Structures are given as C-alpha cells and as structure tokens.
Fold these 2 entries.
Entry 1:
Amino acid sequence: MMAINELYTPKQVQVLKTLRRTDWRLLINYGAVRSGKTVVDNDVFLMELRRVRAVADRLGVKEPMFILAGYSSKSLQNNVLQELTNKYGIDFQFDKHNSFTLFGVKIVQTFTGSIAGLGAIRGMTSFGAYVNEASLANEEVFNEILNRCSAQDARIVCDTNPDVPTHYLKASYIDNKDPKAGVVSYHFTIDDNTFLPTKYVENMKAGTPSGMFYDRSILGLWVSGEGMVYRDFNKEAMMIPHSKLPSNLTYYAGIDWGYEHKGTIIVMADDHAGNTYLVEEHTRQYEEIDYWVEVAKDIEQRYGKIKFWADSARPEHVARFQREAIKCYNAKKSILSGIESVAKSMKQGHFFVVQEAMDNKKVGTDKAGYHYFLDEVYMYVWDKGTGLPVKLNDDVMDAVRYAIYNMHEGIKARVTKKPRQLRG
Ligand SMILES: Nc1ncnc2c1ncn2[C@@H]1O[C@H](COP(=O)(O)OP(=O)(O)OP(=O)(O)O)[C@@H](O)[C@H]1O
Ligand SMILES: [Mg+2]
C-alpha cells in the first residue's frame, strides 16, 4: 500500500485529517488555481458518502440524500464526475432527474450558477453537500444548500478560487471565527501542489499578470485590484517603430461605440510567434455612425476584409456595419477574462504598440489625429469596491480588450477544445 504522503500533498493531508474531527459543519478549501483543491475534495466527497451511510444506518434511514453542487452541469461533469470515473472507474447511473446512487446514498445534483438551482433541492433534507467552485455560486442557492443540510451530523465541503474580499463566502463564512459557526478553511497556494512539475509552476508564475490576477491565481488570496489595471505595461519595452513590425500578420479590429463618450476603432495584428501589435487607433467624440463606417472601410482598404469585434451594446450600429458588408461581430464582453487576456499578453512580453499609431498625425479618414491609448493605459485603474475597473477613460481600453480577448480566446477554444476554466 502507498503511504498517504505519496498520494496527497501535505495540504491535502491536512484536509483529510479534518474529516476525523467532529467540531465543524462547513469546510472551505480556497486558493490558487491548480493547487490541488478539487482532487482532495473529490476524495473527501467519497469519504463523506461512506460516513453518511453509517449515520443513516444508525438512524435507520433507508435512502439518505446528499447534494452535489457545481456551477453548471458541464463544470460538475468535468471537475467531479469525469475525474471520479477516471480515477476509480465509477460508472454513474443517472435517473431521469439526473440523480444517482453511490455507496447507498442518493446524490442530488444542483447547479449553482443561476437561481434555477434552487428548484432541484427545495424542501429536501440532506445529510451533506459538496459544492465545487463555490465562489461562483449564486448566494441564494448557496444559502439554500446550507439550509437543506439539516439531517443529523450533516456537513458541507466546498472548494473555490478566491474573489473580492467582500464576497459572501469570505466575509460571512471564512472570516467567521466563532467556533459555534463551525467553519474550517484551508488556504492553498500554487506551491502547495507538490505534484505539479516545477517548470509548469515557473511558467505559471512568469505568465500571470502582476497584481490582482497573480495574488488570486498564484497566491490564492481574496483581493480586489488596486492601482493600475495594466501594471505590466512598459512603455520603454513595448513601443516599437512601424519599421520593426513583422510581415505576415493577422489583422483585426476592436470597436467601442461612443458619441457623448469617445468612440474608438483600434486595429490590432498578431504574428506567428504569439505577439500582438496595436497598429492603429481612431478615436473621436461626437461622430455619427456614418463617420465610423467610413473609418472601417478605410481600414479595409489597408488590411482587407478583417474582423471587427464590437461592443454589443449598440446592436443598430453592429447591424449597420454588417449591412455595409463589414465583418462586424458582437464581442464577448466578460470584463475580467478580457482584461486578463490583455494583461497576460503584456506580462509575457507579447504586447507591442506601434509608435506611429500613437503620433498625433492623421491616418486615413481619421480627422482627429489624437490618440488615447497611452493616456488611458495609465489612467485605467481598479475600483476597490466593485473589483472591476473604474468606468472612466476606458474607451480605447474596451476596444483593445474586445479585440484581443475575442481573437485569442476564439483561437484557444478551437485548438484545445478544453472547456475554459471558470476562474483563473
Ligand atoms: N493528490 C494528487 N495526486 C496526483 N496529482 C494531483 C494530486 N493533487 C493534485 N494533483 C494534480 O494537480 C492538478 C490540479 O489539481 P486540482 O484540480 O485539484 O486543482 P484545483 O485547486 O482544484 O485547481 P482549480 O482552481 O484550477 O480548479 C490535478 O489535475 C492533478 O494533475
Ligand atoms: Mg478545481
């Protein structure tokens, strides 16, 4: 038989030892990505089912119930069920409500990503719960899971990546040190996972944007952003003359519609080495849609029929572009993921701005000749309260984010087919 420390990391062993204690009701394993939270929680899930069966035997309960909760059906399948099948060969037999029985316990699945998750568990009495990716859970659904766990000795196990410090999971549970609340939590950092190859951890550390993303993903801390959003932007290293732009580039554009606020179209280009270049910026206030059609057609004159990723908040503008036969698409706008993909490119030294694109001269039909990227990148700051950037001086920032995120994520999805990590 293998020794426990060959099977688990020291942090995971700590979690497993906690199962023998009876002084807690809610166990939260939170922290860095890839730090070993779900692997141990999946085993904890199986051990808890054995314990529940024993409790039920004592109480003479024929079919005790247990809640298995995850953000979505797909994430539960990927993070929990598939992993258990791979590791232990468990063959789950689902009934018509997607419940299944394991070790004499009936497991009811619920999806916490929307309030609809309530329906699956309303009214039931559960002997315990396992909540995967708990910080993504709708708070009402999470509360209902806790309320449902009313059977004798019921307890709840969660794993989660950190979020803002004001998140209910942190503020109301992890920080609740009252022993009567029965909350135990463990903080995982990426270094706690002794099974990860050293090289992989080094790459993760080197490639994760400084500040909030690093503190959450690598250190596993509940922090909000502070100061500059794009901390890794470095004007000295990232501004290049047009003459240094490689050939054979894939061009694309990002659009943030605006009238009272500035409107902006930026042109980006990717090379084959994973570098991204900002090659043109067209920003102007008080211009009607006709002006922007003209700018876009002018861009097409230079780069051909490229993709324009646009803010979907103005569907009439997107429709007008499409009527003009411009390849204009609604951009996916998820703010944090979008910022993360831009910030990653900067941190990894793959982001460049063509100097001439920032000079105060006109390009094509661009009447303004003033460019805002460099102003905005230094003024674009986190709002500590919301955990998102302050919505001010962000027009060019938004356009850059739409372009890079949609272009890069789209490619990744096609190449790897792996479902995107929900966080981190
Ligand atoms: N006890 C273990 N034995 C072998 N490999 C392990 C063990 N624990 C973790 N790993 C390895 O580390 C990887 C990441 O672990 P896990 O999925 O538990 O991380 P996580 O903290 O849930 O990450 P995320 O926050 O990204 O969901 C696993 O896919 C597995 O390869
Ligand atoms: Mg996980």
Note: Residues 235-416 form a domain with the Nucleotidyltransferase; domain 5 fold (CATH 3.30.420.280).
Entry 2:
Amino acid sequence: MESKPIIIRHIGQLLTMSGPGPNDAFACISHAALVVEKGLVVWAGADSGLPSQYQGIEIDGGGALVTPGLVDAHTHLIYAGHRAHEVRMRAQGRSYLEILQAGGGILSTVEKTRGASDQELLAATRKRLNHGLLSGTTTFEIKSGYDLTVDGELRLLRLINQLREEGPWRVIPTALAAHAVPPEFFGRPADYLRHLEREYLPKISPLAEVVDIFCEPGVFSLDDSRHYLQAAQARGLQVKLHVDELADGKGAWLAAAIGAQSADHCALTSGEAYGAMARAGVAAVILPGTARYLDHGHMANARAMLDHGGWVAIASDGNPGSSPTDSLGQLLPWAASWLKLTPEEVWTGVTRGGAQALRILQAGRLVAGAPADFILWDAEHYAYPTYYYGSNLVREVYVGGRRVAANRPEVI
Ligand SMILES: [Zn+2]
C-alpha cells in the first residue's frame, strides 16, 4: 500500500456515484481530480479546486473517464470444465432437457467440479477473475453450487475464501448448495433441503454470511424455499433468492416477505411484486446476459423497479451454462439496449446497485472514505462504454489505491 497519497489529475469525467438513492445515485464531475491515501479515497472534486495540502505521486489522467470499479453482484465463477459443446446441440434445436439427458447441462458441471482438485478449481477460477478484473470488475460475488454435497459445497466456500484472501480482487462468498437437486436426491427436492438444514446450514458461518436458493417452479418450490431460508435466518445468516427466471413463481414476493438482501433474475416478476421488493428494501439483481443467452424471450422490467424507487443491480451471472462470461464490463451496451436504460442508470446498476445488493454500502462510489477501487477507461464520456461494444475499453484497474491491471492494446 502506498504511504504517500496518489493524486490522479486531469480526469475528463469522474463518476463519484455519490447521490443518495436508486434514482439519483449517479453523479459526475468534469475536469476532476481524485486523491487516494492508504487504500481509500480522501478527496474527489474539480481539478481546479484541488487543495494544496495534497502532495504525493501525481498521475496524469489524460482526460480519461474514471469510474468506480464494477461490482458484479451475481456470479457462479467457481466450477470445473466448460460446456462449449452445447453450442452445437442448441443449434440443432435440442432442448435443455435433451441436452441434460445427453449428459450435458448443470449436472455435467457438477460431475466435473466434484472430480476437480483444489488446485484445478483455484486455477480455473483465478483465470476468470483475471479476465473480469481486466474488464473493469473489482468486486465479485461468487456463489458455491456446483458440487451439491455438504462437504463439497463447504470445500467450494473455502476455495472462494482462499481467492478472496489472495486478491487483488474483492470477493463476497455466497452459500448456494440449494442450486439444483443433486442426482442423489433426484425427485426429492424437499428431502435435499431438509438434509442441508441439518448438515450444511450449521457449518456455513464464517465461510459465508449469505445463503441463496434457486426458487423456481420445478426446482425448489416457494414453500420449500421459505422454510429453508427461514432456517438460515434463524442461524443469523442473511438470505437471497434466484426467482422468476423461467416462470412467475412469486419468488419476488417471498423475497420481500422475508427481508432478503436481493431477488435475482426477476425476468417475469410483476410490477406489483417489484413494488413490494422496493418497499421492503430488497434489491433486484438483473441478469440481462442470461435472459438473452437462453433466448427465452423474457427480459426483466428494470424500469418498473426504478419507478417504484427500488435498487437495481446489473450483474453478469457468469456461469458455464446460461451466461458463459466473467466480464460484466462487456455487458454495459447490452444492458442499456435490452433493458432500455439510460447511461446513468446502467452505471448505477453496475456500481451502487451492485454494492446495495451485496450490502457493501461504501463500495461502488468514489467519495471520501470509500475504498479506492476505480477504473480508467479509454473513453472521454461516460456514455461511451454503454454504447461501444466488443472492444475492451478498460485502460487501468486500481483496487485499494493500487494499480493491479492494465490493458495495452498494441499491434506487435
Ligand atoms: Zn445464478
């Protein structure tokens, strides 16, 4: 960690994201400077107003856009193998169920993950985190969920924590043993959840503070999900849910009723349910890449949540089946286009919205006291990264005031 302050001068636009609420969090200073000391932002403002007391290492921003590091509030980045061969099967018109019966789908990832060594899983996940970091993500939520045995799920949480300690990225672990029904409990989802309540929930703390479940008709029912999440809450754990992805299963209502941190997907959530979530302080974590990748025709109504004054987070859902990516930064133009959001709303969703969903309230903004996690972009205006797709516009990545990654696109 630098002992002297770092002063970034001549920033073209600095997104401080310092406003109070979901609809006014966005804030931008033109011709700005940013002062960082001991890993934290100590001052942000107009370059012309930089107080003379700040003496340190000066960095010329060169007129670039500087934003908070992206907060990806929903990923499944710890797994072994990949499912690239399913592209051909989908092109041939094979359904999800047919792919599953042919040995593909989530259970193929479970099999590979169970069979992988700690070192293999760490190496594969580390590679994904590096990619994500180079695309602008500095905070990754990572869920367990591709082992589906008690010991294996606890192993995944331990490995996620190991990656968290390694850094330079910031990682928030989530306990998602209730991701799918494992082969050992086929046709008996409620029995699996009772098993987890007895054998798994008591062992989660301190590996994770939050428990998640895939609450969807045909996987874990509303009643079973409620029972499981309330058992987690009784142990002092926080909860969140995958809801309403493939059907309106009323999972968003459950999230509001039990005070979840967030309800995620929400592709088919009704306007009324968004209202209930907003009133209960439950964030909507919206995953536009997944909805488009699965091509199921349902895009979450982010606008309804914003109209109700609720927090919207936009996340990658990075996973090997329905959203094979690790780079939230690559999704910004698509979030704008598919969700019909303004540049200001997209930036809010990938910074403050993500931080709100994860309850890390100092993250996702660049104000005095906030962690100095920020990105220098190859862009002059903040609208540009929500517009220009396919090229990585990230120039430099800072975490805790330290430059941890840089892209230098040059032809050699
Ligand atoms: Zn998910």
Note: The chain is about 35% helix and 20% strand.
